[in-house]
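Quarterly update from the structural biology core.
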Amino acid sequence: MRTIIIDDERLARAELKKMMQAFPEIEVIDEASNANEAIEKIELLQPDLIFLDIQMPGKTGFEMLTELDTVPQVIFTTAFDKYALKAFEVSALDYLLKPIDQKRLEAAIKKVHIGEARENREGEGFSGNEMLTDKSQVFVKDGDRCWFIKLSEVRLFESVGNYAKVFFSSHKPLILKSLNALEERLDPKTFFRANRKHIINLQAVEKIEPYFNNGLLVELKGGEKIEISRRQTVKLKEKMSF
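Predicted structure, tokenized:
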């Protein structure tokens, strides 16, 4: 598991690096003292994990994340507890307050998805070309908000012009990606093109019932009701062995 420590305080980086010696499964491959330096090193080295300070000269840690195409797993390190809620809104693994306690660090390390690290580093995000499965993790940016989520959490994609609305949890951010482009990358075992405007996660289907013109109406776990076109109904019945 390869990691980069990002903090504007040299002593804080040195202390954390020393504490990391207790975890041989984690290799500290580099350090960065500000967001711009960190962005360059993350793009070059493609770490599996970053320890990220929030308040730094120039860009904050949150602002840095919005500029990355591929986001590693993130553990925030900060002297301020007021950012905790926002940290978890961007799907950080953990939020460590300075001075960092060794036991809290150990608890945070246990949350790191070591077995999935390489898979997550290779092409995750919607901007690559690799096939995305329900286990893939993707970075979603919408304005100044960002999330790092597993595709299994996404129940629906909805076309909005040249954009697609991504439905997960209570969020519905827009990404600059057409539904056709998404369909080419999403695993057809999990994601199904319901009609011209929607791709659904079959694992998120709560209920299916007959609908107008020999089609079907599916209700997703979030309460959304999506019409399956007559043409796609035939394909869905074949896929799900109706």
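The chain has two domains: 2-120, 123-240.
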